[in-house]
Amino acid sequence: MKSSREFVRAAALFCLIAQVLVVAQAADRMATGQWELATTTKGETQVMKFCADPATLAIANGDARSGREALVKLHAASGCKVTDFKADAAMVSYSLACPDRTVQASETYTGAAYEGVLRTKLASGALDVSNYKGRRLGPC
Prior knowledge:
- 27% of the residues lie in helices and 46% in strands.
- With 140 residues, it is an alpha+beta fold.
- Strands 2-1-7-6-5-4-3 form a seven-stranded antiparallel β-sheet, with helices on one face.
- A hairpin with a 2-residue loop joins β3 and β4.
- The protein starts with a helix and ends with a strand.
């Protein structure tokens, strides 16, 4: 049987790990503010800037349920259906089934930056792969 001292150490370690996990889950994957996004498809890169508020970041910062709901709402008018959505620590991935294409996305976040891959398979069978990187520039 473990000594009282070993039990206290194990309990303290468990509490520390639990606190770290709670803090990690509470942190947003993306911070609000001005962002720059560079998307590369078929060797061509396009850069855009956008202001991200909490509503805009609901998909990235939500848990699996709320992130999925935000994605469903975003695509409601397009006829696309969310077929998969996962949010885990610093990653979000999802799949969409649309009338003319299917989409799979996987994104990794670090708070002030993110990167991802978007695979779009058209009804014709053609596959487009886009790689993108975003970085926070500061406040809007």
